[in-house]
Amino acid sequence: MAAQIINGKAFAASVRKKVGEHVARLKSEHDIIPGLAVVLVGEDPASQVYVRSKGKQTAEVGMKSIEHKLKANISERELLALIKLLNEDETIHGILVQLPLPKHLNEDLVINSIDPAKDVDGFHISNVGLLGTGQKSMVPCTPLGCLMLLRDHHRSLSGLDAVVIGRSNIVGKPMAQLLLGESCTVTIAHSRTKDLPDVIRRADIVIAAVGRPEMVVGDWIKPGATVIDVGINRIDKPEGGTRLVGDADFSSCSEVSGAITPVPGGVGPMTIACLLANTVTACCRSHDLKEPDGLTV
Ligand code: GUN
Questions:
Q1: 226-229 vs 161-165, strand pairing mode
Q2: What domains can be seen in the chain, in order of their start residue?
Q3: Known catalytic residue: 161?
Q4: Whose CA is nearest to atom 11 of ligand 1?
Q5: pLDDT tens digit string along 203-240?
Q6: 121 among known catalytic residues
Q7: DSSP letters along 122-165, please?
Q8: Distance CA 245, CA 228 (A)
Q9: Distance 144 CA to ligand 1 centre (A)
Q10: CB of 256 closer than 6 angstroms to any ligand 1 atom
Q11: pTM of the model
Q12: Separation in Å, CA 260 to CA 46, 133, 199
């Protein structure tokens, strides 16, 4: 039986709508406008596209959006000075430094210089620790988006076997923590995992976040399992031109799975929607106001 297609694009639109409504309420009832600052260092074309999209969507939901575009050769001291200014700016509730940074900048140092309360990426070591110990934190956007889609699809995730393929700090590790928080039995698989197909065949939920085009195939999927595809890979088409594919082979996986996210239109749109959600959450927390329901864990 063909899998149900999980429509991340539509779900992301509903998250943005909820964020927009909350932003309007903050403005009318408290005269507060949530603000997001995005910092881009250098001219990586993919990062430029993401940052433009983030700025546009931030403004569309009625929030203040500022962008700092810095030269690739900026010194660490200058970048840290900018982050200090943003930390102190009361009109800014969320700060995002687009990764990867040029090699001469210490990524950990830069991320950990962001005020954890404004760390809408959830990458600061304090937020990582809070998430790992089940405490209220800022939650990384892509895993948060995946969890929202899973919660929407499954009545309960408790007791399900989940395999996360990929162990990055941005997706794999926080995703595993979130699924543990839902009482899943979680396995993190990676490039050194022995018998990856066998590990994946046990999973009720497969999160594919390896960055390898169409690596996960239908033969590895337990019938009826849910496949959440985090990959966004551009590959050449035989007839010329390119197309976007995920880390799962959509055609074979959708024949076996119970539900699957497409690429594009699955997890991708959820990431920026969750960034907006995190910014409004951070704003509410900073003003001791009630957070919007359903926009965080
Ligand atoms: N680069 C790729 N994904 C992300 C993300 O979620 N946040 C930031 N800051 N940089 C990224």
A1: unpaired
A2: 31-116 (3.40.50.10860), 141-269 (3.40.50.720)
A3: no
A4: 99
A5: 999 999 999 999 999 999 999 999 999 999 999 999 99
A6: yes
A7: --SHHHHHHHHTT------HHHHHHHHHHHHH-S--TT-EEEEE
A8: 13
A9: 13
A10: no
A11: 0.97
A12: 25, 30, 18
